[in-house]
Amino acid sequence: VGIVIGAGVVIVLIALLIFFVLRRMQLRTPKYRFRKRDKVLFYGRKIMRKVSQSTSSLVGSTSSSRPRLKKKQKMLNIAKKILRFKKEVPILQMKEPPPSVLEADLTEFDVANSHLPSEVLYMLKNVRVLGHFEKPLFLELCKHMVFLQFQQGEYVFRPGQPDSSIYVVQDGKLELCLTGQDGKDGVVKEVYPGDSVHSLLSILDVITGHQRPYKTVSARAAEVSTVLRLPVDAFLSIFEKYPESLVRVVQIIMVRLQRVTVLALHNYLGLTNELFSHVSEHRSTLDEQRERKVTVDEVPSSVYLYPEEESGMENIFSPFQGRPNATVFEEAQKEILKLMKIEDPALLNGRVTFHHAKAGSVLARQGDQDVSLHFVLSGCLHVYQKMIDKQEAVCLFVTQSGEMVGQLAVLTGEPLIFTIKAERDCTYLKISKSDFYEIMREQPSVVLSAAHTVAIRMSPFVRQMDFAIDWMAVEAGRALYRQDDQSDCTYIVLNGRLRSVIRKVNGKKELVGEYGRGDLIGVVEALTRQPRATTVHAVRDTELVKLPEGTLNNIKRRYPQVVTRLIHLLGQKILGNLQQPRSALGLPSMASSPDVTNPASNLSTVAVLPVWDEVPISAFNLELSHALSAIGPTLLLTSDIIRERLGASALDSIHEYRLSGWLAQQEDINRIVLYQTDSSMTPWTQRCIRQADCILIVGLGDQEPALGELEQMLENTAVRALKQLVLLHREDGPGPSRTVEWLNMRSWCSGHLHLKCPRRVFSRRSPSKLREVYEKVFEKTADRHSDFSRLARVLTGNSIALVLGGGGARGCSHVGVIKAMEEAGIPIDIVGGTSIGSFIGALYAEERISLTHLFCLQAMNSVFKTVLDLTYPITSMFSGSAFNTSISKVFEDKQIEDLWLPYFNVTTDITASSMRVHKDGCVWRYVRASASYTPYLPPLCDPKDGHLLVDGCYVNNVPADIARNMGTKTVIAIDVGSQDETDLCNYGDSLSGWWLLWKRINPWAEKVKVPDMAEIQSRLAYVSCVRQLELVKKSAYCEYIRPPIDRFKTMDFGKFDEIYDVGYQHGKLVFTEWARGDIIENMLKDHRSKCRTTLPGTQCPVCHPSHIHQPKIVHNQCILSLKPH
User: Fold this and answer.
1) Domain that holds residue 647
2) Which residue has the higher pLDDT, 340 or 587?
3) Which residues form the active site (predicted)?
4) For residue 26, how many other CB atoms are within 10 A of its CB?
5) Pairing of strands 722-730, 694-700
6) Does residue 634 share a domain with residue 743?
7) Helix-then-strand count for the chain, H and E
8) Residue 665 is inside which H or E element, if any?
9) Which of 7, 351, 699, 941 has the most CB atoms at less than 10 Å from its CB?
């Protein structure tokens, strides 16, 4: 019986065991049940999709179906609420820059002129003056070319031979040599196939009839070479047939002399009086009798018109005592007629004024645009030029009686490169630029005499450098040089734009920097004789100065002070790179050298392209022009302005070179040139895109995201300029939304901006009414806090960033500092932060910081919510659900792309062990991730890649460097982090925990400062962050602020009001000191402050476009033709 009972018990136990095992297995593979509520939701959503389809099919139907459409839309909204149907939020598609942005064209020849013979292309490429001839004239000129063959060591020309030809190497290699004082020849330039040997000053001497022989310059063949020779005499026959070409060629030669030779030798090498001869070759033939008759005492400080007739002169001067008599003007007239070789004396009638300058008076200042010719009668005029990096001025030369000064600026139309001052009393005749142009229009040959008086002022050194320094052009897309090429020269950008790209070991290409007008390229590699570190190609058509290595060495030997200048330039480059992160190849990374890598730091031209015709593009450009005028001289150009100022045929292809030169001149004069495109792909629109350093694509934020027709045409062309999307919003309209959709439907854009526009921008006005409105607008100073001023600062590289550090409850002081900052009038253009700083920064970027939204900070101190959010502490003490709910209620489903201000925050990626910078995506999620302080909150899973993200304070608690790399000029960094104790106890080589415990529990024992295990781990976590913070404090771009909040703890959110007040009072104190000093003023000043700032009262370009500089005189008033929107 016992055995049976035992067996039964065993069987029962086995059966129970089998039963539980089978049940467990069934639990592991659960059976899904289609619950009733799920079934309702399923069929409800299915019905709603059908309704959506039927609604969309009615969009293009007739007006009779519109009532049904509205009813169905209402039903659709009700269904969404009942079924809790949520539309998926679009995610920004990360796009790589197109190949045209990072790659240079493989073709190195001129496609447009590929049908021409190679020798003709060589001549056209190298002799820039030839490119300004119409093609038939150029081809006629090329008929005079001669082929010459030279053996190795044979001289092409030597000193003593006539300097009257242009040489272009077709194959082989030439060496250009200068004879030194010791009689030895030194190679200053190696001339390879396609390069040339010529001097534009020598060309000028030939066409003015003052041909000279070579004195110290020679050229010899380094190997067997074939050379093209074009005699300059061939120009003379062209000029006889086409006199207008004469004026153009002479102006080009003068422009090259001023912009190429003087720019390279003065602005970069620091040479001044070495460039001019102190004694002119020309001397006046006026006798001493005139000098005695026209004394200083006899001439009052007045201005007189040159008399047209003898009787008229007597009438003019009879009311005054001691006036100069008619013989003085007759002699002066003869002298000017002789000097300028004017055939008709009547050309001077009414165009000459008589002046007397007292000792110490300044007649014209360096940089002036409105210049004149000054012909000295008695006394003398001193010509000064400022030294580089110094306030001192050096006397270049003295203009004596019978000599003229100011011709160079008048001929070129460029700003004056020196100051003209009368050190003692002086009398002179003056011919204004406009009057000289009128004379030149009547007798073009006058330009030769004026140019010759400039050429004889140049020193022999400048004439030598005119052979050695090249003036070259690079078409858009062509490579200036490629990575690993030999470094044999340095380049200076005259106008245009270049982009530097590095090819890494894995073959990936990265943008290193961009270069604009006035930038120096390749100087580090050339001076250190290292291979080219990057590939540099032209973003748009670019003109450059090429300074060969041999020429630089020759200058250093002759003028040792140049070495100091080069060390200064090299030191600036090296120090700038040392303070930046470096790439694997030891080069500055993308984050380095912000003045170069920030595309806005050196923009010269901006094209504005509307998405649709409904965009008020004229009003937008005028608003932007007004904001830019507060930073520097700004020019707005439209096709109507071009035709009005330069003639109806200015945009024709025959005037291509003329228009390009004129536009380049406007870039030199103005800080920014705005190009307003037409509504279609016209020649002017193509010119705008071709000239642009940056293209602004302007759309209306309240419209459906769309791609305009003009944009679609733009996508089919290889545009290398950076593109920015600008969305306009009404002041009283809704905030930004669906920005991701705008960006996703476009190719790669470098960024986007939201602008809140005044009502006048969207008002429909006739052209006359628009002129009246903006004439009044331009009379006032632009509001620095407006969104258009923010866009202006972004385009000019003067934006100001606010960076808010992490520190828990101490971050409540950020709000007080921000309020004090607004009261001080400091504008903010970019916002970023870490931890609590990311939360407050996002609120500020959304433009709605208020106590209502800051209640969630105080809610963090709620005991009830804290207890409810507790969880088993494996990963963290709290689940994070309560914190998620609080933040999501504040930001809802807002995307970072939809914030008013550009925003970023920092997190620590513990999956990849790296720092993450978030500039797009869901606001509340990345704010939550940036504030996930361990061990309180769990990491947040990144919805993009699933990586685990925690508080960014472990890698970069005050990310000022990231804001700097985003292109800001100044970063205001507010640090509220905890301060670690540094005065720790030196306990020796070992430490007993019992001894430390006794020190802590014994009230009479001396307290010792020794960190515990948790503090040691915390300090280890913050090592990289502390180092980064020290670099930020020492940087020149950062204004560091730390409120006195050390007495508050990380979780003291209940003391919000007290912490806020501490931040506000400290901010008021700091910003008051800034206002007394020059900190705020320097923040708002253009980083390229050499440009003259336009003051209040700037003339509106709509009503007063005559301020546009032009090489000809236009007497009629220009009225901008604006189309109503």
Assistant:
1) 599-788+1098-1107
2) 340
3) 835 (nucleophile), 951 (proton acceptor)
4) 10
5) parallel
6) yes
7) 41, 37
8) helix 656-669
9) 699
Same domain, 710 and 830: no
DSSP code at position 266:
I
Please identify every residue annotated as catalytic. Answer: 835, 951
What are the structure tokens assigned to 794, written together?
Answer: 């972004």
Helix extents (H) in 496-606: 523-528, 549-558, 561-578, 594-597
Q: In 388-459, which residue ranges form alpha helices assigned H by DSSP?
A: 407-412, 433-442, 446-455
- Do residues 212 and 291 share a domain? no
* Dihedral angle sign, alpha carbons of residues 776, 778, 782, 786: positive
The answer, yes or no, to whether residue 600 has pLDDT greater than 50, is yes
* Spatial separation of the C-alpha atoms in residues 174 and 188, rounded to whole Å: 11
The residue among 346 and 321 whose pLDDT is bigger is: 346
Together in a domain, 844 and 944: yes
**In whole angstroms, what is the distance from residue 435 CA to residue 450 CA?**
14
DSSP 446-478: HHHHHHHHHHTTB-HHHHHHHHHSEEEEE-TT-
Do 465 and 412 share a structural domain? no
Q: How confident is the model at residue 1110 (pLDDT cuts 50, 70, 90)?
A: very low
Contact 160, 232 (CB under 8 A): no
- C-alpha 177/C-alpha 219 separation (Å) is 6
Which one-letter DSSP state was computed for residue 1117? P
Q: What is the pLDDT of residues 167-210, one digit of tens each?
A: 988 899 999 999 988 888 889 999 998 888 988 899 889 988 88
Tokens for 979, please give them: 């301060």
Provide the phi-psi class of 921: left if phi over 0, else alpha when psi is between -120 and 50, else beta.
left
* Residue 340 within any structural domain of the chain: yes
Structure tokens at 23: 């049940």
922 and 1070 belong to one structural domain = yes
Residue 534 lies in a domain: no
CA angle 448, 453, 456 (to 5 degrees): 120
Crossing angle between the packed helical segments 433-442 and 446-455, to the nearest 10 degrees: 130
User: Is 1078 strand, coil or helix?
Assistant: coil
CB 1060 within 8 A of CB 809: no
Residue 718 lies in a domain: yes
CATH of the domain at 301: 2.60.120.10
Token pair of 264 as six digits = 């390279």
pLDDT band at 5 (very low <50, low <70, confident <90, very high): confident
Does 794 fall in a domain? no
Task: Specify the higher pLDDT residue, 112 or 624.
Answer: 624
Same domain for 1069 and 1102? no
What tokens were used for 539?
Answer: 């973003």
| Distance between CA atoms of residues 150 and 174, nearest Å | 10
**Mean pLDDT computed over 52-68:** 48
Query: Residues 373, 431: contact at Cβ < 8 Å?
Result: yes
Rounded alpha-carbon distances, angstroms, from residue 564 to 487, 489, 556, 570, 686 = 21, 19, 10, 10, 45
Most confident of 389-393, 832-836, 1099-1103: 832-836
CB 378 within 8 A of CB 335: no
- The domain that contains 1064 carries what CATH number? 3.40.1090.10
The secondary structure element, H or E, covering residue 229 is strand 225-231
Strand ranges in 82-204 using DSSP code E only, listed in sequence order: 146-150, 155-157, 165-171, 174-179, 185-191, 196-197
Residue with tokens 């000279």: 212
Cα dihedral sign, 150-155-156-162: negative
State how many domains the chain has. 5
**Residue 429 has which token pair?**
């005749």
Task: Mean pLDDT check: name the lowest of 303-312, 779-788, 1064-1073.
Answer: 303-312
